[in-house]
Amino acid sequence: MQRLFSTSTLRRQQELSERYWQFESTASDIQQIFVPSCWENQPGLERYRGTCIYQTTVQLDKGNAQFVFQGVSFFAKVYLDDLLIAEHHNAYTPFTCLVKDISEGAHVLRVEVNNDFSESSALHVPNDYRSFGGITRGVMVESLNEAYIRHMHVIPFQKDGIWLADVKVEIENLSNDVLKAQMKIELAGESCLLDAITVPAMQKMQLSSVISCPNAKTYQLDEPNLYFAKATILINDRPIDDMIDRIGFRTIKVDGEQILFNGEPLLLRGFNRHESHGLFGCAIPLDAMIQDMALLKDLNANAIRTCHYPNDERFLDLCDEQGILVWEESHARGLDVAQITNPHFDAQSADCIESMITNHINHPSLFIWGCLNECPSNNDAGRIVYEKQLSDIKKRDASRPTTTASRYPAQSVFGNKMDKPRPLKAGYHDGDICLDLSDVISFNIYPGWYVDTSTEKMLDRLIEWADAHGAANKPFIISEIGAGAIYGYRSVGNDKWSEERQSQIIQDALDAVFGSKRLSGIFLWQFSDGLVDEEWAMTRPRTMNNKGVVDEYRRPKLSYHTVKSFFGSIAKQKV
Ligand code: ADA
User: Whose CA is closest to 198, among 152, 241, 147?
Assistant: First the structure.
């Protein structure tokens, strides 16, 4: 299941997931595996890094077909009848494989999946989250006629109090003939037929139109009104393809130090949420996503940050339906200068950004795009990458603000231990030199955990420094703040790693962040504990990042109740 609703009425869509595939691995004699899942769930493959082979037989119609993979972790080579039809790096972005002129009948789909760290996968590196292995999200194949809709983007806006939508549709002519096609757009009870266009053989074309939807109801977080948008291609008045997506009529705007959602300033009560679960790894099934959503609502949260990569689109569908705001970001966490100058880094980052925005742009809950979490924004070489990626994002979607979560305030900001600045290497600066490039300022700070200082004191120093270095007159978010606790470890001494100490540090953070008029809110680090890569084990008890307010099985710690109570009190206040 790719989405929480059907995305076409004319395509014959076959679900290739939610079933067993043949499986082959040199490390195990398992011969079948369920798709989607992580192979780490298989006895003997719990911590396997390498290549496994997946295979299934598919009945296809004569003509054109498109295979859609929502996520393969984290390098895939896809073969149809032993012919290589696609290669893809990155576990977190969907990719498609278009195959033309297929014969009717049974075909063999084989996927070679690899999760070895190597220079060829620039974004998956040993990290403070696990890069799992497997076909970890949904797979389907859909039959296509002589032309099909590649993407449909719907950007809502208001004019004189009326909702309108800027609709852009990209179609591709798969035939060897010139096609004369018409496009019909249906949205919120309105329907419009665009002028006929001529599409040359084997070419792509983009159509755009503005459709007025006077009866559309505004998408509000407490009243998440959603509407299906449908584009249909007609050839000689015959519908030959259609695409359905879901949107909400709302506006996002940055106005000075505020982020305005339908004209109202946002105050974010958020969590960082990794796609990681003690039972499912990163292949979180819908039922478990629904449980996470229930816990987020119970915590009185109103936002999640998809740290540090694009999410399974079904979770974004849930956020749309539940009115939970989403900061989605392209894949990168804490990469150093050597890693961002990996020869594959730029192309794989651009591919991730393109796939993330092209596929997720219509989600009304998605209010901001992020990238480059804690990458070298304090470095001349880093700034080049920040400029490139932030301008790419803005070019693809000018309707949403951009941000990057920094960890580089001036060393003096970190308080007592850091007051004596360390010598800086060539090309490095004492602090973030990229704050001018983002629409919204975000910093990850850990007062009381990594640095022995109060949140209030660190915030005062941070805001003063940042506002003098490019942050002034921009919204400011604390994008990570929190502390570790081992589930079940209780300490009358409030010792570090106890649930009591985590609750105390988080309480201090909440008091200080929501006590500051300068800030637009918080994303606590983090929602749930999650497995990390072995290389991080010496600073991560249980080889886990234990900063969740719930553990990896979603069992609540003391801090859960601290956050629930505080967020609940904030939710009742008018911003
Ligand atoms: C960083 C990073 C997170 C996580 C966090 C921590 O801010 O962005 O991914 O590693 O630190 O737990 O230390």
Answer: 147
Q: Which residue's C-alpha comes closest to atom 7 of ligand 1?
A: 444
C-alpha–C-alpha distance, residues 94 and 90, integer Å: 9
**pLDDT tens digits, one per residue of 443-485:** 999 999 999 999 999 999 999 999 999 999 999 999 999 999 9
From atom 12 of ligand 1, which residue's Cα is the shortest distance away? 545
The one-letter amino acid at 94: P
Expressed in angstroms and rounded, the spacing between residue 462 Cα and the centre of ligand 1 is: 18
Q: Check: CB of residue 573 under 8 Å from CB of residue 534.
A: no
CA-proximal residue: ligand 1, atom 10 (nearest): 128
- With a 6 Å cutoff on the Cβ, whether 128 touches ligand 1 is yes
533 within ligand 1 shell (Cβ under 6 A) = no
DSSP for 161-211, please give it.
TEEEEEEEEEEEE-SSS-EEEEEEEEETTEEEEPPPEEE-TT-EEEEEEEE
The pair of structure tokens assigned to 543 is: 């080889």
Q: How far is the CA of 207 from the centre of ligand 1 (A)?
A: 42
Distance, in Å, from the CA atom of 362 to the CA atom of 307, rounded to the nearest integer, reads 20
pLDDT in tens, 57-76: 999 999 999 999 999 999 99
- The structure tokens listed for 267 are 């105050």
For residues 233, 235, 236, 237, the Cα torsion angle rounded to the nearest 10 degrees is -20
Q: What does pTM read for this prediction?
A: 0.98
Q: How many CB atoms lie within 10 A of CB 70?
A: 23
Ligand 1 atom closest to Cα of 307? 9
Ligand 1 within 6 A of CB of 305: no
Distances 282 to 134, 319, 334, 408 between C-alpha atoms, Å: 10, 18, 20, 29
